[in-house]
């Protein structure tokens, strides 16, 4: 990290001036396009991308010294930093290993998936994205969605219209998503595996969790590896669980194997285990407030 003594020593040891992620607003993908691509093949660039970001996260963890943690709703200016976190924290996740087997060859495409997803969720009604920061650095995020399959309940008061700007933005993102899928523009993705996963999502309507007419659903949760096991995930979970407690509705989620321990510790119970493909199992979980 620029300005960090340990990182400068590492640069000096290798006699290379590594460009900082902060040199480019676009982050990992931008670095790959502007610096790595002319100098090394894509596979090596992908491996370097993953290693470099993990090392920077480690030194940022040392620098921040776990200063006061804050959580707040996502601001559009946070999206590049959160996308970098997603691309790192989800790199070895079972689901993205299955969906994006070419993510090391095409790290820019892999990261762009999260940029688009975050923009979409930011504008989607009844969806709330929260980021965790320490020392001004984004170190984690969570996505909460209010599900209303039955009658509109109390609480937030039904489907939430976020204005015409969000409506137009969602329409444009839908068009982008359509042509990206039709032309197979995401090089990191296996479209065959995506079709299998979409079929699984379709079957979710038969899942016992889907029978819950009113609930809060945790759509995503990720924390920078260097900051894991410091209670950040629990704090990001606390917001949605408090909403559910006040509205007297359950919380549902699909857990990866890595997240099972945290959710069980907080009182979530396994509702169903599902085999999607070799190496990919999902676990539906539910938490009901007392």
From TrEMBL:
Q: Which GO terms describe its molecular function?
A: acyltransferase activity, transferring groups other than amino-acyl groups
Pfam families membership: Acetyltransf_10 (PF13673)
Q: Which residues form the N-acetyltransferase domain?
A: 69-290
Q: Which CDD domains match?
A: NAT_SF (cd04301)
Q: Which Gene3D superfamilies match?
A: 3.40.630.30
Show the InterPro entries listed in the entry.
Acyl_CoA_acyltransferase, GNAT_dom, Trichothecene_AcTrans
Name the UniProt record assigns to this protein: N-acetyltransferase domain-containing protein
State the species of origin.
Cryomyces minteri
